Amino acid sequence: MHKCASSWPRCNPPQRRAKERDVSRLVILPLLALALALPVQSEPLGAAKALPTLDQQAEQLKPYKQLLQGALQNGLNGGTLAAMAACQLMAPALQSNLTSAVIEVGRASHKPRNPANGLQPWMLEAHRDYLQGGDSAPRQIALNDGSVGYLEPIYLQQGCLQCHGAVLTGEVSDFLAANYAADRATGFAVGDYRGLFWLKTIAVKTPQQ
Ligand code: HEC
């Protein structure tokens, strides 16, 4: 800054003007870019108006389900162990990839293989109903912070038995012992309730609130 910065209208030598304009452009342009960028960044704040319907949440969960299934299927082409490894790698990765500022997705179980997949308090009531063989329809749950939860029960199928059934091969048992020391996800039979797919549509507070 030159010495007249605090009183520039009075003492702004003409020869310096062009230079100062250049400088101010350097400062203003990034600020302008920032100002233009800000409304875009804060757009999700204003987007929390309408609550999602059950069907919309079911639809939002689909990519996660399909990608998980694809990863498992792909892995199974290489045998049970390859599929185990694929599941171990891909399940947490897909979960974090599909989780954003506006939705979170995941799986939860009363008998988790991965300890990170335990039940969260907001899931417990629906979980007990599903476990007791009640209505298996998906449910929406209003959460205290204004977010909307969505739950869908998961039931065991034939193809799941090799990794979640009562009888496991030696290599599967060894893999589980080595990679999931706290595994509780075996001993299931076809048709058993296994846990939940969950999705949360996150409420974002507007600045005025
Ligand atoms: C090839 C082995 C394999 C097969 C087949 C398999 N799973 Fe899994 N499953 C796993 C592994 C490994 C995990 C832990 C993933 C992780 O670390 O997040 C897991 C985790 C899960 C979870 C998340 C909760 C938890 O226990 O951590 C659910 C729910 C689940 N499996 C259901 C199923 C169902 C239903 C099927 C059949 C459609 C199935 N699995 C088939 C290996 C398998």
TrEMBL record:
A Pfam entry, by short name: Tll0287-like
Domain of life (superkingdom): Bacteria
Domain Tll0287-like: start-end pairs: 84-197
Protein name per the record: DUF3365 domain-containing protein
UniProt organism field: Gammaproteobacteria bacterium LSUCC0057
Taxonomic path: Bacteria, Pseudomonadati, Pseudomonadota, Gammaproteobacteria, Cellvibrionales
